[in-house]
């Protein structure tokens, strides 16, 4: 493409203006409508004083108007910053302070959060609101500077190009170890390389109907959106309420006749646990992609047995290297429920490197620290040079000072066929009673137990010989009533005794973060609270819905 991400929309609008681009329930946007509305928004932002490189935030549920906002911001030469409507106001305020934006585009059920944010005088005097729905916010404690009425007056023709492919397209804020969110800067070129590889590798074309499952502040959605537009396909956005029911998820895939599903593994696990996928279900589905967590082999077996006509691909990569950096196309349905799925080989233009603590390459099959180089590597963290320097280091194999690799914090190994395997986080390798333990190994064993619907392992540090307490939180299958004693016995068949958790918590649901992943920090808090209250009995406690 050698251009900008929004150019894909303009091209499709020129070639096929009446083709459907975005669907959410009964709402539809054609490529022609998306092009005109985003052009109008770009002109409105420029008229309001937005300059090339300005950060423009949007706060709204996943919706067609959110897609218009993304594309319009880019067409104005600005950087779009998606905000999570479900995020606490304190975290959102920190993001606004960090990116120093002048505008927030808002729509949907976000007024309480917006009022709370703009109750802060320093933000209210600096940030103006563009309200992008016809019903005006009558109870707002802030003035609406611009609205859809102003938008309708704008010229729908495109502006001259406002940026270059090396410029940032968006900033995605991820959790920071200090409690301050880190803004990962992603360029047009970063996204372009992955999308063009994805279209070639998966054979995506204008006949495809892609899922829009993940929220727009989560990096997997970048491929959902721009993969769709690059191919001239249809993006079918999943309503928020549909994600809460496995039956509704299955109906969504079925009724929308999706050809591609892309989500975090916990969603596939959720649907498998409730057995909502029929044999030879979803006849139009051609691809299932997952990324972001480890998918247990029993879950993959469940899906592949029921959908023999579908291609299954494991993608791996942190936000800092743009969507994904490696892939593994599963060649056949696994016959053994144990083991792990490779993260595979590097996508075109990417490189995955395993180094030891001295930044030297490790031998084949040796576990080491995983680094990523190539076309997807982010320029760094927004206005955070110290964290950028710590995570994005000079490639020790190169004499060029501009060659950088990203320190993932993951452990990996490479087998004799050149396939990479994710071993775990180097910060989840713990020591208990003198043994080094990888928590991922315990979770893999738990995932094979039929009596459990969902489980996760965390540790509580202790100044004792044990070093730490291994704790397991779990959701039992309907009709199953496992006890810690029975779980220990079953785990003892797969892992050494020193790996078996010593604290257990049964819950109606495990806590999830905004991206749908298990919130391990929250789990640790729950175990610590139980320890403080002394509410454990025989190493077990029961909590309400987390």
List the helices and strands and how they pair.
Layout: H1 7-15, E1 20-24, E2 27-30, H2 31-47, E3 55-59, H3 64-75, E4 79-83, H4 89-99, E5 103-106, H5 111-117, H6 121-124, E6 128-131, E7 144-147, H7 148-152, E8 168-174, E9 182-187, H8 188-202, E10 209-212, H9 220-231, E11 234-237, H10 246-255, E12 260-263, H11 265-273, E13 287-290, H12 297-306, E14 311-316, E15 326-329, E16 345-346, E17 350-355, E18 368-374, E19 380-381, H13 385-391, E20 392-394, E21 404-414, E22 420-425, E23 429-432, E24 435-438, H14 439-447, E25 452-461, E26 468-476, H15 484-491, E27 503-506, H16 520-533, E28 540-542
Parallel strand pairs: 1-11, 3-4, 3-5, 5-6, 6-7, 10-11, 12-13, 13-14, 26-27, 27-28
Antiparallel strand pairs: 1-2, 8-9, 9-19, 14-15, 15-16, 17-18, 18-21, 20-21, 21-22, 23-24, 25-26
Structural summary, described in words:
It is a single chain. This protein is of the alpha/beta class. It has three domains: 7-11 and 25-186, 3-Layer(aba) Sandwich (Rossmann fold), CATH 3.40.50.980; 238-426, Rossmann fold (3-Layer(aba) Sandwich); 428-542, ANL, C-terminal domain (GMP Synthetase, Chain A, domain 3, 2-Layer Sandwich). It has 16 helices and 28 strands. The strands form seven sheets. A five-stranded parallel sheet has the order 4-3-5-6-7, with helices on both faces. Strands 12-13-14-15-16 form a five-stranded mixed sheet, covered by helices on one side. Helix 12 (297-306) links the parallel strand 13 and strand 14 (311-316). The longest helix is centred in the first third of the chain and has 17 residues, at 31-47. The radius of gyration is 24 Å and the shape is globular. Residues 536-540 have low confidence and may be disordered.
């Amino acid at each position: 493409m050698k251009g900008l991400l929004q150019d894909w929309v303009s091209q499709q609008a020129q070639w096929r203006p009446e083709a459907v681009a975005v669907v959410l329930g009964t709402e539809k946007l054609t490529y022609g409508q998306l092009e005109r509305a985003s052009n109008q928004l770009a002109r409105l932002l420029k008229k309001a004083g937005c300059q090339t490189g300005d950060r423009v935030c949007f706060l709204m549920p996943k919706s067609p108007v959110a897609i218009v906002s993304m594309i319009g911001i880019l067409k104005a030469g600005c950087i779009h910053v998606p905000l999570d409507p479900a995020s606490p106001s304190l975290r959102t305020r920190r993001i606004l302070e960090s990116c120093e934006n002048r505008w927030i585009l808002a729509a949907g059920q976000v007024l309480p959060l917006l009022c709370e944010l703009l109750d802060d005088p320093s933000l209210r005097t600096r940030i103006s609101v563009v309200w992008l729905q016809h019903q005006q916010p009558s109870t707002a404690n802030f003035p609406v500077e611009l609205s859809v009425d102003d938008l309708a007056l704008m010229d729908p023709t495109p502006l001259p190009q406002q940026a270059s492919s090396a410029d940032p397209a968006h900033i995605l804020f991820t959790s920071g170890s200090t409690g301050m969110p880190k803004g990962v800067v992603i360029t047009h070129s970063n996204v372009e390389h992955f999308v063009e590889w994805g279209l070639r590798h998966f054979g995506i074309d204008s006949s495809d109907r892609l899922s829009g499952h993940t929220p727009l502040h989560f990096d997997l959605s970048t491929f959902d959106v721009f993969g769709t537009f690059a191919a001239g396909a249809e993006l079918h956005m999943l309503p928020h309420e549909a994600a809460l029911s496995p039956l509704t998820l299955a109906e969504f895939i079925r009724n929308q006749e999706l050809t591609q599903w892309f989500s975090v593994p916990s969603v596939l696990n959720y649907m498998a646990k409730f057995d909502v996928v029929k044999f030879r279900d979803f006849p139009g589905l051609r691809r299932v992609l997952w990324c972001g967590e480890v998918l247990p082999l029993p879950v993959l077996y469940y899906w592949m047995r029921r959908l023999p006509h579908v291609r299954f691909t494991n993608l791996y990569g942190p936000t800092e290297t743009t969507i994904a950096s490696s892939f593994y196309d599963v060649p056949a349905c696994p016959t053994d429920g144990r083991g792990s799925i490779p993260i595979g080989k590097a996508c075109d233009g990417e490189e995955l490197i395993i180094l030891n603590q001295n930044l030297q390459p490790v031998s084949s099959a040796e576990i080491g620290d995983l680094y990523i180089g190539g076309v997807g590597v982010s320029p760094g963290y927004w206005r955070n040079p110290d964290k950028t320097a710590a995570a994005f280091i000079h490639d020790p194999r190169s004499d060029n000072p501009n060659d950088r690799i990203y320190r993932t914090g993951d452990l990996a190994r490479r087998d004799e066929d050149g396939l990479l395997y994710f071993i775990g986080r180097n910060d989840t390798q713990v020591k208990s009673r003198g043994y080094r333990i990888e928590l991922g190994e315990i979770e893999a064993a738990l995932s094979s137990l039929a009596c459990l619907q969902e489980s996760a392992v965390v540790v509580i540090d202790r100044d004792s010989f044990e070093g730490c307490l291994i704790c397991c939180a779990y959701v039992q299958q309907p009709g199953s009533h496992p006890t810690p004693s029975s779980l220990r016995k079953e785990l003892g068949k797969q892992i050494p005794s020193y790996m078996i958790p010593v604290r257990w918590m049964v819950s109606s649901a495990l806590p999830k973060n905004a991206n749908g992943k298990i919130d391990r920090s929250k789990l640790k808090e729950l175990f610590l609270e139980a320890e403080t209250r002394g509410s454990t009995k025989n190493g077990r406690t029961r909590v309400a819905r987390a």
